[in-house]
Amino acid sequence: MSDYTPPLPEIRFVLDEIAGLDEVAVLPGFEETTGTLADAVLGEAGRLARDMLAPLNHTGDREGARLENGIVYTPAGWTEAYSRFVDGGWMGLRFDADHGGQGLPRVVSTAVMELWHSANLAFTLCPMLTQGASELLAQHGSEAQKRTYLRPMVAGRWTGTMNLTEPQAGSDLGAISTRAVPEDGHYRITGQKIFITYGEHDLAENIIHMLLARTPGAPAGVRGISLFIVPKLLPREDGTPGKRNDLRAVSLEDKLGIHASPTCVMAFGDGGGAIGYLVGEENRGLEYMFTMMNDERLAVGLQGVGIAERAYQQALGFARQRVQGRADAGGPEKVAILGHPDVRRMLLSMKAQTEAMRALTYYTAAAMDRAHHDPDGEARAPQSALVEFLTPVVKAWPTDLACEIASMGIQVHGGMGFIEETGAAQHFRDARITPIYEGTNGIQARDLVGRKVLREGGQTARALIAVMREDAAALESAADADLGAIRARLERGIAAFEAATGWLLEAGASDPRLAAAAAAPYLRLVGTITGGWLLARGAARAKARLGDGADPFLAAKPVTARFYAENVMPHADALLAAITEGAGTVLVLADDQF
Ligand SMILES: Cc1cc2nc3c(=O)[nH]c(=O)nc-3n(C[C@H](O)[C@H](O)[C@H](O)COP(=O)(O)OP(=O)(O)OC[C@H]3O[C@@H](n4cnc5c(N)ncnc54)[C@H](O)[C@@H]3O)c2cc1C
Q1: Which of 272, 334, 443, 456 is most buried by its number of CB atoms within 10 A?
Q2: Which atom of ligand 1 is nearest to the CA of 441?
Q3: Are 24 and 369 in contact (CB under 8 A)?
Q4: Is the pTM above the cut of 0.70?
């Protein structure tokens, strides 16, 4: 039996009340996305997640992926699961009908992806990367490349990878040294890539590597990198997979978590050069690759939401069953640990923060839909700027929190959490990669501060603060104790966000190192307050819908938001102090004093 329940009422609530599904559904191209359609899609995706993917999560972790004679085998049951996934048309949910997709808004496909990440993070990495590679081709590929590669990828018959990292080139992609030499309409690729997720596997009939390399005489650094399509099997004229290309998985990494996801060391060109096809123009590869990287950054943030939800469900289930001790209020009966205030605190902390993370990721996905589909051209630019501003926050804040939440999930279990049998430990191990890959969270913080705040003089941050203030002012605090408490804390948090942004703009102008030292606490502050603001919005809507009714789901919303406002938002004050008072000290010690 599955131990995962798709949180469909919660997802629908966030779609409707926080992300504004009804407004997205009237944008050109999305007119058919009614609430009924969203329910049908989510219901079906939820069944797949619960009945097929979730039961494979634990067995996949135990068995792991393995490499034998050049072939990577995924764990038992995975090829069947992948076939069902492909047959259901799930890969192409958000892609245009022109490419064989179903054209659903990003906000709906985001909700669907959350279900799969929760159910089985290691499995979902494969579709996640394929979707990112497809987005890259849809935006930057030639018509011929789209015809050959995009359709089979959107259908899921072929999968995609991201081939960036090399031993000397991790966060610093300017150090990439893989070579691409032109030859008769294609290029010969030689080099080694490491840590390539699903670089080789037995799920699909072909694997399309999106690879960064340097052409002869290319400028040094990031301005000399080009992007190539390097197929495992070279497509024939008729588009079917043909001859094997000169590339292979040399080994698989032995990892802390996501054991079933093959992390490959890839060798390109051992036999003279793998054939690769240039995307766009030479030396603009990193610019194109950012389309895929931004896509994956949002997807990895969503992984954080998914795994936090799973850890919460697991801990809650345990807390309801585990009987230990007596109630603090007294009485002879032993109680389930859910009755103990400290366990309730942990569970509410997991629940509230997971809901805040979900709200932020869906809100950002809806902003993407608006940025691409709003018929009013002038309304698009601010939405694009908002998505750019929030992308590093969505990547980093939920993934840092996912580790904390999965750790708390273990704590709720007591000793049994540390024992692999319960599964709580797996969530913790699996979550740990999410702050690292797809640009470490340190790199996300740098991006937020450098590119998204300092470079544009804080414009988008200020616009976001103005919207938050409007929402805070609209909370009917006088009439309602919950909303009043939320409003007071939210207003303080917004003030901290504003003060931290102001300090950064000043400090960054005089000393960029100071701004870099404050980047991580600043990102945390932005995530904390943005998440709390969206929970406040949900609380107000739930109150309005609830009226005098007694719906327990809606009634929990203001309480959860108030818990967050009183227990999590005060961290903003501490973060502000760390930014404005503590950043300088980060830089004082000499290297040999560490
Ligand atoms: C399981 C797994 C799967 C992966 N999948 C893929 C994949 O499919 N494709 C792919 O191309 N790569 C993949 N990666 C690689 C991953 O993206 C990198 O590990 C990551 O970007 C960090 O690079 P690095 O490991 O070289 O760390 P480093 O860059 O060496 O960083 C080490 C530390 O220094 C910090 N740091 C480095 N530079 C800076 C800076 N300028 N400012 C502030 N801090 C800095 C980092 O934040 C980090 O804390 C995967 C990695 C793993 C472990």
Answers
A1: 443
A2: 47
A3: yes
A4: yes
